[in-house]
Design brief:
The protein is mostly helical. It has helices at residues 9-22, 31-46, 54-77, 93-115. The radius of gyration is 17 Å and the shape is globular.
Amino acid sequence: TRKQGNLQGGASCVFSRTSSVASKDTKGIDSKGIEFQIQLLIKCADISNVFKPFGIAKRWAIRITEEFLLQGDEELARGMKVTPSNDRLSASLVGSQRKFIDFICLPWFEACAQLYP
């Protein structure tokens, strides 16, 4: 199981940079810092589908999974190695969503909650 507050992959890099920006009062943040924080919040909106009511989240999960599978079809057609999450023969909707939630969404939103309590 994932440890509470343990940031995975890119999220830890992004949020270690952001924590110094967010720790200043708003008067001490330059326009680049504000722009960066806005980008972080836009990313929150971008990945928030998993936290919507189940019917809506399920529809989005099906759509994004199909997009990934089409990417895998394209990789295969070009003679490339197919990314595991994009492979029609092995990928699963439930497995893909579980990994997305555990390794992307939860660490991202936990970090946001620390930055913007």
